[in-house]
Amino acid sequence: MPSPRALPLLMFALSPMFATAPAQAASGPVVAIDTGEVQGAVAGGVASWKGIPFAAPPVGVLRWRAPQPAAAWSGVRQAQAYGNDCMQLPFPSDAAPLGTPPAEDCLYVNVWRPATVRAAHRLPVIVWIYGGGFVNGGSSPPTYAGAALAKQGVVLVSFNYRLGRFGFFAHPQLTQQANGAGEPLGNYGYMDQLAALRWVKRNVAAFGGDAANVTIMGESAGGMSVNALLASPQARGLFAKAVVLSGGDGTSPDPGLAAVERIGANFAAAKGIAADDPHALDKLRALPADQVVDGMNLANRAPQDPATYFGPFADGKVAVDTGAAFASGRFAKVPVMIGATSADIGGRTGFMVAGARSLAGRLAAHGVPVYAYRFSYVADSIGKPGAQHASDIPYFFSTVDVKYGAVATKKDVAMGRAMSAYLVNFAKQGDPNGGGLPAWPRYAGDKDVIMDFAADGKPVAQRDPWGAEIDATTVAAAGR
Predict the structure, then answer these.
(1) What is the DSSP letter of 238?
(2) Which of 417, 428, 343, 338 lies closest to 378, judged by CA?
């Protein structure tokens, strides 16, 4: 898989860097979790809790450490506002502008559920993992709010994970420290994802959720994260279903730890910290957070010589070689919904569109229930054809009115209602069908039938019209 830093620039209409979150009254339902009581808010028939710590702040000596347990608190903690998104240089043209200023103290989780739940009835849970090339993104964008999905009878959970060099970094001295402490190393952002899923397993019942019925869902880097979690031995038992939006072909980079350590040493050297300095790790942890970011974001990320950042890598423990895992059958065989947008990165024969089709076929070949889709719909207000990367997110979340505001049309909203209903059905039963929706067949490579969320605003199940072209391109590339 090409590393996320090699992905082409994702350009969208300019948006404000930070969206203003609406004020909420500091009152609402109180829930007891394993670290204390939290008080949320109720609005529009939905209860929500935001900014709950699921791990200790990864600052100071905890920078570049596996996430540590969150401290307990006494009394009732107010949970009506998002915690800070993780440290990054915001990307002003991102499709989902952040709602909070980034900070290194960022490991927080958010929960939405129907305001009224029956005590004996556990709701299915959807856990959202944002994208952003592993260098940008967060859980606070209004497009990612879970209220519309919660109204349909699920618990929606979102969380933050460390990004850039905070989330994915290696150095010889870090390796020595981690080995001495018996801790995993390098893929700290993935470790945060695992810690958040463990938090869900321990605590979601307190919010009315079913810890045995968790669906993980991610887009772009979040979709790649879902692929990684499907293959990770450490994620076994933490989820029951998976949704991959524009997550590529399911392969992953594997340069080896030594190569990633050299990249980390290159970064240290650029900050005047020699590789053989016995205090290198202390000096790296003392760097101000903005110096660790060092001006990198999705807009300007490009290969450097020497390289100073790599991103996620196969460490063999937290993150394995996903391509090998999917080929051999060493992955969590849970129902999967998978697809991409019609004008996604790389075009119809590229990493996202052809990649999703390829991975759907490989998973289905192992007997996994797979439901493949393509998102071809374009909001009426955009005025040009081709569904761009990430444009399907507000439809699955049914936040089209949030994304497009007053220019959202009835057709836009109707497509969001249909797609979110498919998603909720899938979270409930591992099958998107039901509720009078057009039938969505299970994917099989020989039949190659996908659900196209078509440009005319109607879901249509059909044999992939691009299948022959994708196959021919694949064969030609293999023969080179």
Answers:
(1) S
(2) 343
3 state SS of 336? strand
User: So what's the pLDDT on residue 22?
Assistant: 39
Q: What is the tens place of the pLDDT at every residue in 237-281?
A: 999 999 999 999 999 878 899 999 999 999 999 999 998 999 999
Of 381, 387, 393, the C-alpha closest to 347 is 387
At 298, list the tokens: 């999705």
Looking at the predicted structure, is the pLDDT value of residue 18 above 70? no
Residues 85-100, mean pLDDT to the nearest whole number: 89
CB of 161 closer than 8 Å to CB of 87: no
Looking at residue 427, its amino acid is A
The CA distances from residue 300 to 91, 143, 351, in Å, are: 9, 24, 21
User: Residue 395 in 3-state DSSP?
Assistant: helix
Per residue in 378-421, pLDDT (tens digit) is 999 998 999 999 999 999 999 999 999 999 999 999 999 999 99
Q: Round to whole Å and give the CA distance between 290 and 312.
A: 20
- The C-alpha R_g of the chain, in whole angstroms, comes to 21
Residue 469 CA to residue 350 CA, distance in Å, equals: 11
Cis peptide before 306 (omega within 30 of 0): yes
> Residue 302's pLDDT band (boundaries 50, 70, 90)?
confident
Average pLDDT value over all residues in the chain: 93
244's tokens:
């991959």
DSSP string, 286-326: HS-HHHHHTT--TTT----SS---------SSSS--HHHHH
| Number of neighbours of residue 201 by Cβ within 10 angstroms | 16
